[in-house]
Design goal:
46% of the residues lie in helices and 6% in strands. It has 6 helices and 2 strands. The two termini are 33 Å apart. It comes from Puniceicoccus vermicola. GO terms for molecular function: DNA-binding transcription factor activity. InterPro entries: Tscrpt_reg_Rrf2, WH-like_DNA-bd_sf, WH_DNA-bd_sf. Pfam families: Rrf2 (PF02082).
Length: 143
């Protein structure tokens, strides 16, 4: 199962803002995104570099530059984002310790953990940034 860590959460947060403004507002600076999502600017800048290298965002440097989604929000899954920041193959560890399940009888939670893993993977792969672009979520106001 993906360990849906802090960096992945921050990357989804940054990308959700780019999806919200797609394509109306055009380019946003890392500072614009950081301010809107209450994230450290340097962290957002580093995340955007990784997302750019993965061809999920495009960018133009300098004054008047910024970042924007390279594809429509409906074509970018949460899995595409999360997989950039998480180790592939990181599974939820068996409560009996590493290498228990798969080397004999499975632990009492094995089936439930496999099901949880499948649900998380399905959620991440089937959910796209389009949910943010369509305004289907209620985001808190404030700043």
């Amino acid at each position: 199962m993906f360990k849906y860590g802090k960096t992945s959460q921050n990357a989804i947060s940054a990308m959700s803002h780019l999806a919200e403004v797609y394509p109306v507002e055009g380019r946003l600076s890392s500072q614009d995104i950081a301010l809107k999502r209450n994230l450290p600017k340097q962290l957002v800048a580093k995340i955007l570099v990784v997302l750019s290298q993965a061809n999920l965002v495009s960018s133009v440097p300098g004054p008047g530059g910024g970042y924007w989604l390279r594809k429509p929000p409906s074509e970018i899954s949460l899995l595409a984002i999360v997989s950039l920041f998480e180790k592939g193959g990181d599974m939820l560890m068996c409560p009996f310790g590493p290498d228990w399940c798969g080397n004999g009888d499975p632990c009492p939670l094995h089936d439930q953990l496999v099901q949880l893993n499948e649900q998380m993977n399905r959620f991440l792969s089937e959910t796209t940034l389009d949910v943010f672009a369509r305004g289907e979520v209620s985001l808190p106001s404030g700043g």
